[in-house]
Amino acid sequence: MTHDFDVLIVGSGLAGLSAALHLAPTHRVAVITKRQLSDGASAWAQGGIAAVLADGDSFDAHVNDTLVAGAGLCDLAATRFVVESAPDAIAWLRGLGVPFSLEGDQLHLTREGGHGARRIAHVTDATGAAVQRTLIDVVRATPGITLFEQHTLVDVITARKLGLPGQRCLGLYALDDATDEVLTFRAPQTILATGGAGKVYLYTTNPDTATGDGIAAAWRAGCRVGNMEFIQFHPTCLYHPHAKSFLISEAVRGEGGQLKLPASAGGARFMPEHDARAELAPRDVVARAIDFEMKKHGVDCVHLDISHQSPEFLHEHFPNILARCAELGIDITREPIPVVPAAHYTCGGVLTDLAGRTDLPGLFAIGETACTGLHGANRLASNSLLECMVFARAAAQAIAAAPSVPVPGVPRWDDSRVTDADECVVISHNWAELRRFMWDYVGIVRTNKRLDRAAHRITLLQTEINEFYSHFHVTRDLLELRNLVQVADLIVRSAQLRRESRGLHFSRDYPELAAPAAPTILVPPVA
Fold first, then answer.
1. Is 118 labeled as catalytic in the residue annotation?
2. Which of 283, 324, 357, 450 is catalytic?
């Protein structure tokens, strides 16, 4: 079956749903998501959305904080564009009904690491979930948007791959989980909003959907990627055998939480020894400090202590964190929270301009899938949801202004391949191997030898996975593993090219900064 639309949007997080709402009044829009609408990373965001809304704050201050966190690699034009668009983005969400936390009749603003002022608009400690629920309700009630849940992106369709003249995106193939059939979607404009690739690592704060689908598909379609070596590790993921991917918000440290060693290692606070900003240092600094202290003292975790705040304060500001910890027997009003760093955010991605356009005409990338230049070598806390909204609107405006382009006929997917009985177990084992060696060799601290080992393992995995993909019926697990291995390859290759330590990339072989600062850009071979 072939589906025809004006715009295809892959992904149902804040970026994808925002773009759909901006386009729906004038375009026939399809939102394609591989699970339920609510299963992406946006719903997991706790902290909030950064915006200059308070007296005494300024766009210049927000820009400067972003540039400092980005360690010399932020694009100034992109940073200023996003920062100056932030108040309108917050107003748009409030107009849709997002129930932001208030202080009187004004937005309550909190502060997070790397920010020099209180500028984080939030919904207690579950901002992403509240925003996502609101957008889903609005999208479901909006004519002009057709939803395709349980549909997994297989690949982008390009004119070049079909042997047609010109070079542009013509749509995509997607696997329908319900029928196990690969469907054809045609459209003159396609937006990739599939999120990041946190599941390439053993420990991550990301949901299971974060498998780098859009980044890998865009690369295969001929798009450049940038800064893929910069993977942000959230410093404080809850450490508990029954807690999967639950992060402890940056705002806990913003409200006075202190990082300490476990009692078995002396119980001392340690961040002031690593950085003058202590717990409010950017995430890369805090994550490396925790990693250092864990290895130095041979402990499995450190403690984040917010118990000096009153129970009333914690119930008001961190109800979800308090409740989740309580379920696991941790009373944060009386005892510290055990935490470890975990892969959290993909700062690099598909290179785009300020409208989300990629190198391939007709293909856009927004949100965590994209590399807009905003994050540089390290993302400043709570700039990510903001980026999603700003570039969703920019992409929608660019699409609305683009001339209508006819889409030629596209052949159906060749579905004559058989299912191999060994495929599932091999995929499971390969996935486990990939996530383990990426954690060991391409984690918070890197070396040339570790990167070389990872590159060798990736080459072997790619050969095996490509054989499965070429000869057997595709499954969601196979597609996700194929994409993860491709993204792992891009991360390692980018890390090998960066012969310095900057932002989120720290190498023992190159511990100093190099000059001048320059992004890492990879160019795919011609398809």
1. no
2. 283
